Amino acid sequence: MGPPLKLFKNQKYQELKQECIKDSRLFCDPTFLPENDSLFYNRLLPGKVVWKRPQDICDDPHLIVGNISNHQLTQGRLGHKPMVSAFSCLAVQESHWTKSPNQEEQEVETDWGLLKGHTYTMTDIRKIRLGERLVEVFSAEKVYMVRLRNPLGRQEWSGPWSEISEEWQQLTASDRKNLGLVMSDDGEFWMSLEDFCRNFHKLNVCRNVNNPIFGRKELESVLGCWTVDDDPLMNRSGGCYNNRDTFLQNPQYIFTVPEDGHKVIMSLQQKDLRTYRRMGRPDNYIIGFELFKVEMNRKFRLHHLYIQERAGTSTYIDTRTVFLSKYLKKGNYVLVPTMFQHGRTSEFLLRIFSEVPVQLRELTLDMPKMSCWNLARGYPKVVTQITVHSAEDLEKKYANETVNPYLVIKCGKEEVRSPVQKNTVHAIFDTQAIFYRRTTDIPIIVQVWNSRKFCDQFLGQVTLDADPSDCRDLKSLYLRKKGGPTAKVKQGHISFKVISSDDLTEL
């Protein structure tokens, strides 16, 4: 079963239709009035605009006539070129396309047949290795090629590698087929990557996330807002990463990648501000977001970035939507959506497309809640972060033994387990954990285990008081047997950084 239908600006088709029938009137969309102000923000109209309904244009109007074809799409003088080009890409998918009315195209042609200001669709990219005969012809072993399509189906490239070029004529039909230099549509043409870079200055990549080629993606989304408050713990408009003192006062969202190597596409979309432009509001705010790899057991908001890894950052730009696509390792990640400037208010939509569910949720609490249970057993007084960087020179009982180490980090009844590292005695973990402790008398224990088929093998541990006064620099300690900090030393050592504070909102 598909996702529930989402109404655009709460418009219900059947209700609108019945109201128009009852009042004997034609529908006029109050969110897109037939006025010149609805067409452009920052530039003048290309000429006089007359608003017409389909029946005013022809006697028998139809949205689709005959078979679907990308050649039926032209933007006209008022058209949105990137949008029409995107429609042209989707024209080959019958369930995803629409048409726009035909109007005269007025654009300036370059010396090589391209249209200035026009949008083309990239349909293929190839790294071509030339055979012995062609190497002699082109004096090169490989050529990088780009295939483009003109959505209008005409005005093709006439430069090098075009169908009328010397380069193209040097290739037989068999050469073109073997090299993959084929064209499936009128309006398509090939050009070298160098010529592409010389003639085009902007490239937009559109992802159709659910299709047979790339597989189906899980979608998780949340609505949020940037709000202003004088209390730093309540403020949710801290500005971009440059504002280090206030950056983490933005909304924060955590998600979990269950295995290494999953591709995650993140999208931040701001509210449509077009309806406010008469009030002097900008068309779009400058927005972006930051991504941090955090502790495996984090439940509360970030307050300072001491040990967290900065895993990614989007572009900061005044567009409606910004994206970031990353292959991520297993673990927890906190995404921080921001406006470039702090102290502003607006709404946003955050979406994550992933190969598996990632449990996207907002972090709203700054510290554990005060409760009867906490009062009975003791409310936390110390917060401790630990990052175990590595475990090295681990014990082998015999030379050809396979060691698959992993960590278990314990504090009281709570524990965090790292992924298993395969066949190494020098394991890099960079595993993070955070604990809220009633007292430093409850130690933090880091154990190293060897993952085996039937029974895992204990390799050693370190026991840490992790007092707030302790040094926060990177440390290295030898592993010991079970029994506390004075137990017998075992082979191997771990490198780690531990930070403790009696201010529960410091970390």
Brief rundown of the structure:
The chain is mainly beta and 507 residues long. The chain contains eight helices and 20 strands.
Word description of this protein:
It is flat, with a radius of gyration of 30 Å. It has helices at residues 13-23, 54-57, 81-90, 132-138, 166-169, 173-179, 193-199, 372-377; strands at 121-129, 142-149, 188-192, 218-226, 252-257, 262-270, 287-294, 309-313, 321-328, 331-339, 346-354, 361-363, 382-392, 405-411, 414-417, 427-437, 444-450, 457-464, 475-480, 489-501. Strand 14 and strand 15 (414-417) form a beta hairpin. 11% of the residues lie in helices and 31% in strands. Mean pLDDT is 84; it is low at 97-105.
Secondary-structure topology with pairs:
Elements: H1 13-23, H2 54-57, H3 81-90, E1 121-129, H4 132-138, E2 142-149, H5 166-169, H6 173-179, E3 188-192, H7 193-199, E4 218-226, E5 252-257, E6 262-270, E7 287-294, E8 309-313, E9 321-328, E10 331-339, E11 346-354, E12 361-363, H8 372-377, E13 382-392, E14 405-411, E15 414-417, E16 427-437, E17 444-450, E18 457-464, E19 475-480, E20 489-501
